[in-house]
Amino acid sequence: MALMTDLIRLDLAAPFAFTADQLKFYQHNRFIKLKEVLLPETILFFNQVITRQVEEMNGVKTAISERDTYGKAFLQLFNLWRENAVIKELVFSKKLANIASVLMQTEGARLYHDQALFKEGGGGITPWHADQYYWPLETDKTITAWIPLQKTPLEMGPLEFSAASHQIVEGRELAIGDESELVMQKRLKVTDFRHVIEPFDVGEISFHSGWVFHRAGANITAEVRKVMTIIYMDKNMKLKTPQNENQVNDWHTWCPGAIPGEIIRSPLNPELS
């Protein structure tokens, strides 16, 4: 197994310099793609480590053709930081947590959970959805870092965004699936929100808030589209009373022991910045 070098550790801790235009862009659109956040060496290293971990943890044996739309979208594995001390160094990266905190405009960032999303060759679309439908969190001070582990052309199904769609209330009650794709595709077509579909370079990372609607196309290549995600929240985020069964599940799975109306401080939700 390859060893993490001092260069990679420095890369995970180094500050990221924002421009005023980047900060303005995020506040208006609630998503941003930032180039050269991590070095190519860092991405290659974690591609290898995370791939091995996903292979160990993956229990999905069903053929793609036999899965539903959600199952065809990607292999999904959670909280790899608890299974692998090396992956924990990426998830706990000061650089990434500080970026999240700056964009959320908070005093610091707390971990909600991490998530590996591997879209197999021939994998289907990821339907339009807003992540925060699932989260029993009191405010919208949330953000997800979407970290491709390789160069990701359009053919592999990179993340797409409806810019500034956090303003839309319709669709917030929908879980990810065929219905959310159909309803939001129609709804977003009649808005002025720009649909952003762009490839990702190596080291490029996107950040999006919990209520921004996003999707991904199918992976029409023979290669696996490998992505690691880290979900952050305001370090002072309070648990809200869940509003659907998915939020109840998230409460007990990702914030065990947290109490509605109080700051989430479970052992699974450490402060990262």
From TrEMBL:
Domain of life where this protein originates: Bacteria
Keyword Oxidoreductase: yes
Coiled-coil intervals: none
Extent of the signal sequence: none
An annotated Gene Ontology molecular function: dioxygenase activity
Keyword entries, A-Z: Dioxygenase, Oxidoreductase
Matching InterPro entries: Phytyl_CoA_dOase-like
Name of protein: Phytanoyl-CoA dioxygenase family protein
The species this protein was found in: Terrimonas ginsenosidimutans
Biological classification of the source: Bacteria, Pseudomonadati, Bacteroidota, Chitinophagia, Chitinophagales
